[in-house]
Amino acid sequence: MNQNREKLDLFMYFDGDYLLESQPLFGVSDTAQMWGYSVSDTIRTFGKKLHGASDHISRLVNSCSEANIDIDISPSDIQTILSHLVEKNTLLVAPEDEFLIITYVIGNWTFNLPDTDDYPPSRLLIHCSTINFTEHAKFFTEGQKVRTSTIKQIPSESLPATIKHRSRMHFVIADKEVKSIEPDASPLLLDYNENISESIYANFFIVKDNTIQTPPIQNILPGITRKKIITLAKQIGLRIEEKHLTLEDAYSAEEAFFTSTSRIITPISSIDGISIGDVIPGELTQKLLMEYGKNVGVDIVDQFLRT
User: Fold this and answer.
1) What CA–CA distance (Å, rounded) separates 172 from 287?
2) How many Cα neighbours within 13 Å face the side chain of 194?
3) Partner of 286 for a Cys bridge, out of 2, 85, 97, 281, CB 3.0 to 4.6 A?
4) What pLDDT band is residue 2 in, cutting at 50, 70 and 90?
């Protein structure tokens, strides 16, 4: 698969052109690089087809609005560019490869307002890579180890949780902190009320008393996959509850998992060294993986385990 080949120089989109990703883009004073003033959203493919593109583009546009970033390209035009990018890169990769595509909008801002009293336009960057299935396969057999970080989630009063932004130093510090304790661990952030919020790339779920529970959206990014899992669980008759969760709730859970765009569902094997459940994936986690796979026409676990 793609993991055993040299890294490919795939096409990306930037400010009106399709370019190879090896081409340099930014100067040292760029808004995104210097100030982190950019928003993004991530889409993956199944069978080289964009999955949930309209939902992700809608959230991207909403992030721009919440972050006061002007965007002069329509959602339909963004979708067209995404489709063209997939078509161009499909010719460069193996048939079994799938794409992970990150769409960025770089904010229209400068420290000193120009003489025209108008900021320069925002810019659209879309980066495409292949999903490294082999690298992630172990999480579906061994589960993801999780450690609570001392770094707190940024309060929504400071930076609205509805913005999927690229100002992510707190996530990086949290990740380095937990990996210094347990190298394979992923961080879990709490809010200032000591309730569980989210991880650096994913929303958090547990299973207790045959009920799937997940934090409410007040202080977490409202994940697209999170929303789909909640809808799917209800459709197949599973009980689901959005509520504040403490670490005590998590430690006593029967199952736990993350949801994200790339892996869809990642089973969790331990939290702060405490084992969660007896098997990986747990019963309800496995059921959700199977049902989601039916909706996209792919056995998700098999796709990651196949080498």
Assistant:
1) 32
2) 4
3) 281
4) very low
Q: Which amino acid is at 304?
A: F
> Helix 224-235 to helix 283-296 angle, to the nearest 10 degrees?
100
| Helix locations, 91-223, DSSP H | 133-136, 169-181
> 196: exposed, middle or buried (C-beta count within 10 Å: 0-12, 13-18, 19+)?
buried
Distance CA 165, CA 125 (A): 14
Which residue in the block uniquely carries the two structure tokens 């990018």?
85
| 137-305 to CATH, choices 3.20.10.10, 3.40.228.10, 3.40.50.410, 3.40.50.1370 | 3.20.10.10
Q: Summarize pLDDT for 148-205 with one digit per residue, the tens.
A: 999 999 999 999 999 999 999 999 999 999 999 999 999 999 999 999 999 998 999 9
Question: What is the pTM assigned to this prediction?
Answer: 0.93
* Buried/exposed 275-304: b ≥16 CB within 10 Å, e otherwise: ebbeebbbebbbebbeebbeebebebbebb
Quote the strand ranges of 11-62, DSSP E. 11-14, 17-20, 38-46, 49-50
Buried b (16+ CB within 10 A) or exposed e, 55-68: ebbebbbbbbebbe
Across 4-15, average pLDDT: 82
**Structure tokens of 86?**
């997939």
Task: Quote the tokens at residue 186.
Answer: 């992923």
Looking at the domain covering 2-131, what would its CATH class be?
A: alpha beta
Q: What letters, b where the CB count within 10 A reaches 16 and e where it falls short, cover 137-173?
A: bebbeebbbbbbbebbbbeeeeeebbbbbbbeebbee
